[in-house]
Design a protein that fits this description.
The protein is mostly helical. The protein is built from three helices and no strands. It starts with a helix and ends in a 10-residue tail after the last helix.
C-alpha cells in the first residue's frame, strides 16, 4: 500500500512539473517584489514589521501584483493596453463573443 502511495505521489509531481516551471519566472518576480516591499515597509530596518509597517507592506504588494498583471496583459510590451489585449488576456471560457 505504501509503495502505491509513493508511486502516485511521484507521478503527480512529475505531471505537475511543467506547470511549476511555467510559474517559475512569475514566482521569482513576486519573490523579488515581496523582498522589495518588505524593505520598503520596514521603516526602522529592524527586520520585522509592526502592524503599521505591515499595512505599508500589503499596499506595496498590491501595487507589485497590479504592475505584474499589467505586464501580462500588455502582450506586445509597448506600455499601453489595447481593448484587444485586454480581451485576449481573459481566459477563453470568459471571452465575449464578437459583435
Amino acid at each position: 500500500m505504501k509503495t502505491y502511495l509513493g508511486i502516485a505521489i511521484a507521478a503527480s509531481a512529475l505531471l505537475a512539473a511543467p506547470a511549476f516551471a511555467c510559474e517559475g519566472a512569475r514566482a521569482e518576480k513576486m519573490a523579488e517584489a515581496r523582498d522589495a516591499s518588505f524593505a520598503e515597509a520596514d521603516a526602522d530596518a529592524d527586520g520585522v514589521l509592526t502592524a503599521e509597517e505591515f499595512v505599508v507592506f500589503e499596499s506595496a504588494m498590491r501595487r507589485a501584483k497590479r504592475a505584474q498583471h499589467f505586464d501580462r496583459v500588455d502582450a506586445d510590451g509597448d506600455g499601453v493596453v489595447t481593448a484587444e489585449e485586454l480581451e485576449n488576456a481573459r481566459p477563453p471560457h470568459r471571452r465575449r463573443p464578437p459583435l
